Amino acid sequence: MPYAIKAIIFDFGNVLLEWNLWRVYRRYLASEEAMQAFFREINFTDWNAQFDQGRSFQEGVAILTKQFPHHARLIHAYRDRWDDSIGGAIAGSVDILKRLKRRGYPLYGLSNWSAETFPRTRAKYDFFDLFDDMVVSGFVGVIKPNPAIYELALTKIGRPASECLFIDDSPANINQAKRLGFAAIHFTTPERLEDELTQIGIL
After folding, report:
1. Residue 101 belongs to domain spanning
2. 167: enclosing H helix or E strand
3. pTM of the predicted model, to two decimals?
4. Do 74 and 95 reside in the same domain of the chain?
């Protein structure tokens, strides 16, 4: 596999950057369990995916507040305190990214992320400058694991999936990448990623 890999694609959230919603809601709710109960009630996963597909926070918050007026404060908190959800760079992963760059691998990003919040985050972390290019879902209107966003990435890279290694923390996204012909690594920790990259001869 290492001899075939010509480009490496990274997800961002919880691969290169810590993203933890408890950092937003701990000032409002007594426990992570209470936060998860709130998320289940409002169907947070689907609601948040709409932002990753390009919906504005203003529109999304207004719609959900009408559906769940008793949770208006918590719904508004997601928009108003979103930046608190970022816990910082995952140092081990960023180190791997830098090592891959030094080894000459073209690096690309493929992330589900709101077009409103991503520019603020990108401006804070200079490791984003290591990427040759990236596809961020909020700007293109489609999210992983939809095959279309993988195809958009391949168009930017200019290589077939078989020559690309995809790294993501979501099993669903990894499984889709494999179906499309990518080499893929399910990210769990930087240490495990380093081990897997070493085993296949990339590091």
Report:
1. 7-16+90-199
2. strand 164-168
3. 0.94
4. no
